[in-house]
Amino acid sequence: MKWFVAIAVDIVLVVVFCAIGRRSHDEAVLTGLLHTVWPFAAGLAVGWVVAVAIARRAAGAEPFDGSRFWPTGVVIWLCTLVFGMLLRVVAGQGTAFSFIVVATSVLALFLLGWRGVVRAIR
User: Fold this and answer.
1) What is the pTM (predicted TM-score) of this model?
2) Cβ contacts of residue 112 below 8 Å, gap of 6+?
3) DSSP string of 15-42?
4) Collapsed DSSP state (helix, strand, coil) of residue 118
5) pLDDT digits over 70-102, tens only?
6) How far apart are CA 8 and CA 118, in angstroms?
7) Each residue of 4-47: pLDDT tens digit?
8) DSSP annotation of 73
9) Is the Cα dihedral 26, 34, 73, 90 positive or negative?
10) Helix or strand or coil: residue 93?
11) Cα Rg, the chain, nearest whole Å
């Protein structure tokens, strides 16, 4: 799978995660979506940079594949979650424990789930 397709899938899923969250709290989805998305999008970008760096440092590794579950997907998921939450704290956005639990599980389902499906198909 081309790396830009994998990035596009991840971006769409992070936006969907944020849109679902805004909708479930009866918040304006379109007008406030960027406010909710940017911390997680930044975390996603960090995750991709780290995942590519890890893949390049691995001696004798296969060509980089953004759809790989391990370590690519796990690194991207964890960076999206951790950096997204840290940026929300810095920006004064909410990080209630229940939100962290929901974000952890939904982002895992989204960012790891599609990679698991791709792996199962291959």
Assistant:
1) 0.93
2) 69, 73, 74, 77
3) HHHHHHHHHHTT--HHHHHHHHHHHHHH
4) helix
5) 999 999 999 999 999 999 999 999 899 999 999
6) 15
7) 999 999 999 999 999 999 898 877 777 889 999 999 999 999 99
8) I
9) negative
10) coil
11) 15
